[in-house]
Amino acid sequence: MKNDNSNSRRKFLQQIGATSLFAAASPLSSLAASAKAEERILTYNKKISSNDKIRIGVIGYGVQGHFDLRTALKVPGVELAGICDLYTGRLENAKEQFGKELYTTSNYKDLLDRKDIDAVLICTTDVWHARITLDALAKGKHVYCEKPMVFKISEGHPVIEAAKKSGKVLQVGSQRVSSIGYHKAKELLAAGEIGELNMVNAVYDRQSSIGAWEYTIPKDANATTTNWDTFIEATEKMNFDAKKFFWWRAFKEVGTGVAGDLFIHLLSGTHLITNSKGPENIYSTGQFSYWKDGRNLPDVMSGVLQYPKTKEHAAFLMTLQVNFISGTGGQEVIRLIGSEGIIEVNGNNITLKHSLMPEAPGFGGYDSLFTFSKSMQDEMQKDYDAKWTADQRKRKTKEDIVFKAPVGYDDHLDHFTNFFDSIRTGSPVIENAEFGFRAAAPALSCNESYLSKKIVNWDPINMKLK
Ligand SMILES: NC(=O)c1ccc[n+]([C@@H]2O[C@H](COP(=O)([O-])OP(=O)(O)OC[C@H]3O[C@@H](n4cnc5c(N)ncnc54)[C@H](O)[C@@H]3O)[C@@H](O)[C@H]2O)c1
Fold it and tell me: Ligand 1 mean position to 213 CA, how many Å?
């Protein structure tokens, strides 16, 4: 299938050029009156020769399979060669979109056998990720695999080894790690703008049935139309259950709950920004607050993770939170808190506020001083005045920083561009198997901790449970 993306690319670049002028007057920048606003212009208008064509197959053509394919096809020189899915309605949908001649199958191994496919996008239910990745690499395909890279921690090293051995590109699909906003946060943290990092509070709240994964189930869903027997080849034997096929995230037999779905984004984002390899201790707890729909993984969950001091960063504590019945209306934010300020990452946008301690220690005001005798107070005030100048007693101020991505900016497109660039030029991907596993393992450990009510100890360097 051909895609004409040169036109849309041109339009996109024009749009960015036009919007960058207005960035300084955007609502985000006006949050802080004295804030600096910064804009970045994207530069990926590349010429693609016919030898550079990359033909892709999609395995798992549900919601994210659609978004991933749509985005991948925006990258110049990328063509669709085939789609695989287990549910018949989604293969019909694929033919309706791309024409009757499109190759479709419900057996991903047949798609992997095709010589005209260079790369596959693996967008299936989590439980299938590692298995299909291993098979795809063995067949010499480059792989873009959705997050979490693995369903079980034991699958991590085999995937890492297979990727190395194959010499093929493996990109994990946490597209936020390609965001220019995240890279800006990384730059500001490294520049010491918030002093020494000591805490990360990361939140992903929602308040809707779809947000809580109750997606529409088609009327014809049954064991035959969903190829149920194939679906459960990667799981324990289970009778057909439409919810376990279409609302799989909420069931531990096939899904990884809020941890694998959303903590993982917060973890991969934090690891990118801090250059961290991961936490050493992981504790998590959760409850069933509202979505009483048969799910067996919580709809409200928190994690507390201790990151050790390393040469990349100071020791910091991370709190993770997902609340699916949140009266906030929903929010996604990573707050990086340091000794001299805070960086808030909201999607592709960043705000940085400083707060600096005065050089002089506190004295008077809400203090024990006034409880002493008058003569003691006077004497100590004299000592303090002799020791500290007025300047040393004041908090120094520093300008806040606001970074706003251009309107129309798409981190997902950057993530795919990075993947296809890597296939073409051998340049490294932003989210390789090690990175993907280092985010997946603590996320999966949150489920383990919740289920066992124990702290999970993890070796982030060697990527092993302790
Ligand atoms: N990066 C992101 O922001 C993001 C967003 C949403 C979902 N995801 C990830 O994408 C993946 C898919 O999520 P979704 O929301 O599209 O789910 P979905 O239920 O809409 O789609 C999953 C599809 O995979 C198919 N499938 C399952 N096993 C298969 C197999 N063995 N062979 C072929 N097809 C198979 C199913 O038929 C289904 O159509 C998940 O891993 C999820 O974590 C990532």
Answer: 12
